[in-house]
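Fill in residues.
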């Protein structure tokens, strides 16, 4: 029984072995036949790149994904050259491309037929990283140029290389890429060999290429337009950002093709998830560069890329200037409270110091001091010294305040030490009153206002709404702070878009709300409102940002533009242009109504400015009359009591 089982098992394994052997021979014959056919069709099997070109190709690639659609492509010479090179790690993949290939890989290489190039460029040609297309057969040059230019025009993808067999030498492969800038036969763009020029060098000269440049109205930039019945066009730019734009165009040799701006300025995300303004144009790849400064922050999209920072700015709140103190009481606010308190304090302490001197002098005189006896004392002074000490102290208190308010006293004290003290007191009173008089004159030339809002806490206490016009500024102005004050202000923040007039104009008239804008906007565009005391910028600004220009993310222009921008910053050119704009804006305030409020014109005093003096005389007269009546009443009561006693 066991022998039969063994014979059956041996027969079964022998049968399986025969089947596997025949299958293997069939597959080997099929592979050899296919390889012979491929050898006849694929010209790139034995071609390879020059080592210098290969090194240049991998210069900025840190990790490459090499994908082979067919397994036999692994044995090709060019593929082996990619696998065995030592410039960067290579990850191999086979078959159909999965979704992770385009989402996780920045640098890719594809081996394909030239008829598959259009489809793969559409799927995997992006601005992010490098795409190397290894073509198995030489492509049609005009079609290759068309496909490469389409990637540049539609997506801005430029770092795409094309490797294919050299027609003259089948053992060598050519590597070309697109230079979209030179103009040839009324069209821009030409294919260049990597062996002739490096990729980075094409950005040194853009050959007057029209670069789509977007500039909208901002503190440091604006456009000049020409409009008539039939024409509406942009004729130039102004501002520091405009100067930077033209200098970049001169250094890189491109033409500034200004785009007509829309009304959304910076732009923001709309309720349906799309973007408007400058951000929307970047997302839709309608512009190549935005040369109006952007805050370096997150704009709820990954499609925005920033240049190197060029300057800084603050995001500030502003309110209507506090109302002016009426001229009838303005002298009461002429002197700061700490000066007034020190004046009163010194005036109250000085009599007691004088009393101490009098006490010591009288005691020394009673003890027979020779020095005090030698001092000449007038008869009137002898009479005052003969009074009771309580009466002398009363006289000292009155005389001190008479001196302190700069009125002449009837007689100097009899003792030399007291005279020196009185002289020093007179000198200090002169200094105080000189300060009072100068401050009094100043308040008529520079009008005083009630206390303004100077901190975010005071703004929160005012309990007013905060209006902001640009959604891009609203995202993180107060949001995310642990401060209770900022959390309260976030609840009061309201985004407004459509206004009949500018927000600052509305505030200067009404002023029952607060606004948010860039600090530079108040210093340049709206300086007339600050100069004429219509608006007040709250000194405590909630945000401070670096400012940069904006590209579509991973723009190939970014590196060369950043190098030039850093040179401009290092040379001080951008700071110089900004300082010129601020100086011009300040000088321009002379043309605005209310310039006299800045204190640069003479102030002619009128009777209206002397109201307080007349009010003081009236109040003093009434008070003197009341005191007189009280004294008469007290005298009458005392006289009546005396008569009753008699």
């Amino acid at each position: 029984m066991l022998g039969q089982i063994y014979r059956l098992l041996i027969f079964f394994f022998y049968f399986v072995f025969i089947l596997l052997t025949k299958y293997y021979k069939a597959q080997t014959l099929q592979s050899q036949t296919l390889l012979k056919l491929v050898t006849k069709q694929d010209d790139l099997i034995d071609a390879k790149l020059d080592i210098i070109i290969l090194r240049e190709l991998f210069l900025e690639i840190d990790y490459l994904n090499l994908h082979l659609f067919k397994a036999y492509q692994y044995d090709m010479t060019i593929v082996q050259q990619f696998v065995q090179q030592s410039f960067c790690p290579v990850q191999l993949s086979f078959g159909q491309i999965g979704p992770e290939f385009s989402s996780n890989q920045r640098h890719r290489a594809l081996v394909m037929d030239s008829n598959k190039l259009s489809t793969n460029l559409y799927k995997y040609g992006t601005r992010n990283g490098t795409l190397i297309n290894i073509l198995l057969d030489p492509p049609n040059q005009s079609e290759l140029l068309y496909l490469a230019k389409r990637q540049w025009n539609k997506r801005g993808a430029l770092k795409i290389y094309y490797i294919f067999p050299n027609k003259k030498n089948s053992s060598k492969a050519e590597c070309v890429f697109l230079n979209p800038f030179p103009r040839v036969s009324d069209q821009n763009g030409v294919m260049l060999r990597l062996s002739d020029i490096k990729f980075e060098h094409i950005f040194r000269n853009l050959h007057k290429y029209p670069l789509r440049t977007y500039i909208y109205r901002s503190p440091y930039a604006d456009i000049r337009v020409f409009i008539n019945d039939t024409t509406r066009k942009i004729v130039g730019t102004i501002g520091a950002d405009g100067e930077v734009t033209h200098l970049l165009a001169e250094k890189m040799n491109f033409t500034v093709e200004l785009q007509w701006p829309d009304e959304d300025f910076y732009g923001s995300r709309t309720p349906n998830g799309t973007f408007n303004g400058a951000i929307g144009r970047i997302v839709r790849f309608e512009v190549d560069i935005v040369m109006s400064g952007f805050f370096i922050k997150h704009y709820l999209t990954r499609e925005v890329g920033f240049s190197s920072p060029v300057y800084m700015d603050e995001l500030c709140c502003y309110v209507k200037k506090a109302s002016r103190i009426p001229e009838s009481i303005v002298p009461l606010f002429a002197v700061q409270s700490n000066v007034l308190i020190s004046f009163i304090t010194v005036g109250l302490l000085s009599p007691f110091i004088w009393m101490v001197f009098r006490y010591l002098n009288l005691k020394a005189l009673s003890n027979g001091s020779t020095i005090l006896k030698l001092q000449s004392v007038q008869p009137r002074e002898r009479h005052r010294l003969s009074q009771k000490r309580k009466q002398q102290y009363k006289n000292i208190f009155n005389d001190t305040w008479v001196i302190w308010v700069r009125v002449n006293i009837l007689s100097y004290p009899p003792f030399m030490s007291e005279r020196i003290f009185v002289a020093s007191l007179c000198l200090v009173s002169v200094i105080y009153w000189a300060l009072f008089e100068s401050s009094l004159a100043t308040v008529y030339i520079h009008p005083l206002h009630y206390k303004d809002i100077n901190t975010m806490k005071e703004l929160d206490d005012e309990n007013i709404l905060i209006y902001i016009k640009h959604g891009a500024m609203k995202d993180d102005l107060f949001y995310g702070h642990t401060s209770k004050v900022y959390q309260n202000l976030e609840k009061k923040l309201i985004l407004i878009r459509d206004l009949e007039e500018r927000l600052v104009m509305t505030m200067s008239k009404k002023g029952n709300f607060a606004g948010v804008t860039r600090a530079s906007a108040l210093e340049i565009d709206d300086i007339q409102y600050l100069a004429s005391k219509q608006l007040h910028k709250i000194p405590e600004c909630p945000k401070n940002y670096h400012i940069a220009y904006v590209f579509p993310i991973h723009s190939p222009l970014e590196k060369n533009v950043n190098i030039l921008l850093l040179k401009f910053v290092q040379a001080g050119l951008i700071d110089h242009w900004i300082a010129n704009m601020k100086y011009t804006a300040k000088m321009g305030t002379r043309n605005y109504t209310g310039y006299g409020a800045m204190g640069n014109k003479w102030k002619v005093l009128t009777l209206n400015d002397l109201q307080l003096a007349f009010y003081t005389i009236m109040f003093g007269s009434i008070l003197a009359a009341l005191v007189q009546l009280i004294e008469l009443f007290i005298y009458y009561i005392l006289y009546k009591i005396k008569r009753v006693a008699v």
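The chain has five domains: 1-37, 51-201, 204-321+449-599, 330-445, 608-645.
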